[in-house]
Specification:
This protein is an all-alpha fold. It is built from five helices and no strands. Helix content is 68%, strand content 0%.
Length: 72
């Protein structure tokens, strides 16, 4: 019986496949090993993917926020 896949391994696999939305959906809930500002950028990137219109209304640029979160 093999060990279940760790969330961090799953995120790496999703990033390799360029499935950033799924990767960010998982990583936004991580608690350890990530600096707060990096975690905030990834959370905001995911939220901008899910609800870009809302963030445009707030004066944010969703595409730029998404790019920043993916870069992290």
């Amino acid at each position: 019986m093999s060990a279940p896949e760790k969330k961090s391994d799953n995120v790496r696999r999703l990033v390799r496949r360029r499935d950033y939305r799924s990767a960010l959906r998982i990583v936004k809930d991580f608690r350890l090993g990530i600096r707060k500002d990096d975690l905030d950028a990834m959370r905001l990137a995911y939220e901008c993917m899910v609800n870009p219109g809302f963030y445009r209304q707030l004066g944010r640029n969703p595409a730029a926020e998404i790019d920043s979160g993916i870069d992290v």
